Write the structure tokens for this entry.
Amino acid sequence: MNEKNSLGLNKCFGELSEPTELFTEWFNEAKKTEINDPNALALGTIDKSGYPNVRMVLLKDFNKSGFVFYTNFNSNKGKSINENPKISMCFHWKSLLRQIRIVGTAEKVTDQEADNYYNSRSYGSRIGAWASNQSSIIKNREELKKSINKFKDIYKDENNVPRPEHWSGWRLKHQEVEFWLDGESRIHERLKYIKDNDSWKKILLSP
């Protein structure tokens, strides 16, 4: 018989009062079992026409203040977030039969945070941040290659490639976090944390 917590949920939900503490535990498990990119997430935004858009991005940092990813601010996602900072994230770890959904408001990370992460990237990735006008139409791949070579000529010193002003990060300041565990006969287990002023309220959801 599976062990349960005080809410009658599987013990993997624990008894934690703050969602990032439980996220940390589940994320650490995913790092052990997911073959590729346990930090991959589906990011949902709303464009200026009111249409939802979802794409995969990588989580690069998180703490009680929020969940951080980086991108080109001139990309479709960057423009959408500028128009409407209400966004969502969804992590799905098939190896664990677990899912986490996060809803909140995006804010820009500090320049220092962006610089620190940018400088940790490979030379090719830093050059790519300059060379790719993300989401814009190109005639062919050769056009992109020429742009990459152009910026390699400009920034020949691999240790000295400045961060473009249009390339930085967003922090999702979470207001709701839902933890989902696959259940037999589709009777899943769902625990949701909702921000209530400076504390968190926990509720159970029907599958």
